[in-house]
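Amino Acid Chain and Its Fold in Token Form
===========================================
Purpose: to set a sequence beside its fold so the mapping can be learned.
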Amino acid sequence: MSGRPVYAPFPERAAGPKISMPLRDDDAGKPDLALGQTHHLLDDDGEGLARDLVRSAKLTLRRDGGHFHPMTNGNWTDATYEAVLTLDRALAPEFTTAMAKAIRQRLKAVFKQLERDDAQSLVIEAALRPLPEITQDWRHRGDDPTKQAGHERQSNQGYPAANGPTFASRAELAVYQILQDLRQWALRRFRRMT
């Protein structure tokens, strides 16, 4: 009537795959899609760091060890679950309480639409580190458990070495070299003072 343009809302991005409801315990791929929806909600709300950390996590549901919470139907004895975010050990310290709360809020909204009101809590866990490979003769290899940098060189398995000790990884070698540099610096400084 005024002659001015009329604006209407439209979706900004194409809709992704839909998750059929409800999300059941045996639905293997659905938790990852639910985590993807949580990722997009965090992105929409400007929670950039939480969004990026969620991208590298894996979501599973597990019974929460017998804790019972009031359910919407008033039944206190229904089995309840916890949402478990498993992530790389190096990223675990990045999750602050505020970040976990932001993720929990978005995940709760997603679970509500997937008819999973029984997922009552969020647990953030570091992934288990892989077990070392061993051989049948591990007792007789001659490793001295008191030597921290004592990997054997006899089989030349590519362990990094420097000035005698052999290390389990390049990261251990880097720390050793930094400590050696600090030692040299401290000795030079001590000599100048005396």
